[in-house]
Amino acid sequence: MGLAPEIRGQPTLNLAALPREPTEKDVNIFEGLISTDLTEEQAQIIANPADVYPRQPNVIGIHWHPEHIPLDLIRERIDKMFPGRQDELIIPTQHNELITWGNFTGAEVDCYSPSFDTKVQLLLHFANERLVNRGDVFKAMVAHTGKYRASQLFEFIESVLEPTFEHRVREAAGRTGADEHVVEFTRIHVRRLKTLIDRYHGSIPPLMVKNKLIRNYFDALGDQYSEALIKRAQEFLRAVKKSVKREFALDYFYETNEFIEEARSLGGCITVPHPEQFWPVLLDGLDLDAIEVWNPQSLRYTQFLIDVVNRQNRNIRRGDRRVLISMGDDCHMGEKVRETRRQDPEKAGREIGYQPPWDDLAIRKRLIAANISRAIFIEEYRARLEQA
Question: What is the mean pLDDT of the chain?
Fold first, then answer.
């Protein structure tokens, strides 16, 4: 297993000669990956959007992730993107972390749906005053979920390195065509990364402890190895990650109703995101404020979901609150400051408040029938958040 074969004309790589411990280059890469500081160039990228929408009067942003980007720069970006806006409802929803913007606080939490035996996510939003000196149990639930979700990174690493998970390696190699040399190359560098994580334990910002750390580390190795080899290693790693996610124990997540009950006790509002993944929870009779019928990952169910929500609302009892139709941009701000050649183009193109289906003529027919628009959603959802 000493020599990796040539890959499309690239020189043969002697795996036996590769250091097993992190190199100085590895240290520099790792310190850059865990840093939350922005360069001046990155700050300018955030503050100055490429596109502007001066004729959009209402802006909804209740499903987006600041990641490590400062909120003041994001505010500057939104101000420039929508200079003609008259009203807005903007609430960040970091994964399993409560973040405040203006008068509101939000999070996207992982939880478990026993009815469908699957992990789902909920968007939870609150007026800030509802969380002042209150909600200790709820806050502890969010913190526990964040820590457990972050543990997936370590299971991912163990899956590549430990004999216990050899079945995952074999399955991933079979699906991607990764030979023993690609697998060994990957293991050498995952082991180096693990050493660095252990070495810097305690000083790594919790936000950076996630699966993307492995992807970003291997992307950064592209300056040392051939593009073809890094691509094959990344394909193999993505296949391992799928196995990890599929087999990740759900018992340690709170159930959907547990999060909903705690959120309701604090006057919070609940939205179900990701229609392409989670629409079956509509059948579960959950106490919801809104259903996200669109985000950039999928248009597949948008019109169907609008019709389903509309039918449900026609059958509610007098005096009951209807379920609102929402749309989410699912913007990950951190993707915008990665090197262009290493960005996920689809994710990098997402923008807070940019949800084109609100203006799509075919979809608008259904929205009119449902008596919903950006302006109506903002008014009703904000009223629920602010009600005594």
Answer: 92
Question: What φ, ψ does residue 145 adopt, rounded to 5°?
Answer: -65, -40
Q: Which amino acid is at 377?
A: F
The Cα diameter of the chain in Å comes to 74
Instruction: Using the 3D structure, point to which of 205, 227, 247 is the last residue of a domain.
Output: 247
Q: What range defines the domain where residue 347 resides?
A: 40-48+62-148+253-386
Of 194-198, 308-312, 379-383, the range with the lowest mean pLDDT is: 308-312
* Separation between Cα atoms, residue 237 and residue 231, nearest integer Å: 10
pLDDT value, residue 301: 85
| CATH for 106 | 3.20.20
DSSP collapsed to 3 states, 20-81: CCCCHHHHHHHHHHHCCCCCHHHHHHHHCCCCCCCCCCEEEECCEECCCCCHHHHHHHHHHH
Considering just the CA atoms, what is the radius of gyration of the chain in Å? 23
Q: Verify that 278 and 182 share a domain, yes or no.
A: no
Specify the pTM: 0.91
Give the tens place of pLDDT for each residue, 58-85.
999 999 999 999 999 999 999 999 999 9
Question: β-strand 3-4 against 58-61: which pairing, if any?
Answer: unpaired
Q: How confident is the model at residue 388 (pLDDT cuts 50, 70, 90)?
A: low
Task: Give me the amino acid identity at 145.
Answer: T
Rounded to an integer, what distance in angstroms lies between the CA atom of residue 369 and that of residue 276?
23
